[in-house]
Design goal:
Elements (H helix, E strand, L loop, with lengths): L11 H18 L7 H8 L3 H7 L4 H18 L9 H28 L7 H21 L7 H23 L6 H20 L3 H13 L1
Helix pairs in contact: 1-2, 1-4, 1-5, 2-3, 4-6, 5-7, 5-8, 6-7, 7-8, 8-9
């Protein structure tokens, strides 16, 4: 006779992580309103009451917790050593970002496009926090401690362009190839800086520095 596998009781944090992982897998490919607590329980191999025990606020609380977890992962996409030329660093960060987008597909679209029945001011704040963190990372890569308005607007506008391009890329069946999309977005960043440089001395100095790095 084959012995049954030994049962191991999970710690509170391990169980919570297990439930969040299951929820994220579901939200990755289905809109939040199409995912039920029963779906999460089944994906995690647990009972519905157990899901409620860890998330007594129900689906809304679970969705917000899963969203925070995804937001943390997205923010880490821009973690890159501050060494070497800027544009290759930005390229590596975009590789990680676009990998996340590709893996989370429908969930990423629902997250950024909004309109979900589970969307609240808190979920909107979580998404905006990712954008602000990405901007701070990029400014840090630029080694700018006191960015002026023109530079801050340029970086935030580029992040918005990256989001829009990512959504269109998903709608178009992940075309063009991800490497081509990445390189195009890096070129867009350099071009945006060049345009702003004509109006802003701070950005002009950064553009000259980027040109020297090449």
């Amino acid at each position: 006779m084959t012995a049954a596998p030994a049962y191991r009781r999970l710690s509170v944090e391990e169980r919570r992580s297990q439930l969040l992982d299951a929820a994220l897998r579901l939200f990755a490919h289905r809109a939040p309103e199409d995912v039920s607590l029963d779906d999460v329980a089944e994906a995690a191999g647990v009972s519905r009451p157990l899901v409620y025990r860890y998330f007594p606020g129900g689906k809304q609380q679970l969705y917000e917790a899963a969203l925070r977890s995804a937001a943390e992962e997205l923010q880490h996409c821009f973690d890159e050593p501050r060494e070497g030329p800027l544009l290759p660093r930005l390229s590596r960060a975009l590789d990680r970002y676009l990998t996340f987008v590709g893996e989370h597909d429908t969930g990423f679209s629902a997250l950024l496009q909004g309109g979900s029945v589970v969307e609240t001011s808190r979920t909107t704040a979580i998404v905006d926090g990712v954008r602000r963190a990405a901007a701070e990372h990029i400014l840090s890569h630029l080694r700018v401690t006191d960015p002026g308005l023109h530079l801050r607007m340029t970086v935030r506008m580029w992040i918005t362009a990256v989001e829009a391009a990512s959504l269109i890329w998903l709608d178009e069946g992940k075309q063009p190839p991800v490497e081509e999309l990445r390189d195009w977005l890096v070129d867009q960043f350099a071009a945006a800086l060049a345009v702003t440089a004509k109006r802003d001395p701070q950005t002009a100095a950064l553009s000259e520095q980027l040109a020297a790095d090449d």
